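Q: We require from you a single protein entry containing the residue sequence and its fold in token form, and nothing else.
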Amino acid sequence: MTAQEKTVLDFLKMLEQRTSPAELIDFYHPEIEQTEYPNAVTKNTARRTLNDLKTASEKGSNLLSEEKYEVKNLLSVGDTVVLECIWRGTLAIPIGNIPAGGQMTAYFAQVFEFRDGKIYRQRNYDCFEPFQ
């Protein structure tokens, strides 16, 4: 396992257990740019900086009581890691036809590029199961 692959797995563990958006700083390069391509939750391509990611993390903590990542594939070439996983989030509030306490599921492919040992670029290709 490469150092970058270990960082990605540690990043997922942090997301599952996080208590504060400040924890993102341990993983993200100060010049991070995260791109999320259109999906059922994000209608248009979104590009986020570290401050944007901290804000999104705070909002997400109000929507979810728990989240889990099941890694299917983890591949790397040089400073790039590609992750395929299944994400499951337990809702703190109802969303669409899923009640509070119910579960959302999505299939993620994510590309992480590293600089100085931290995630510098992240691209998310998220496919959510229907919830409307």
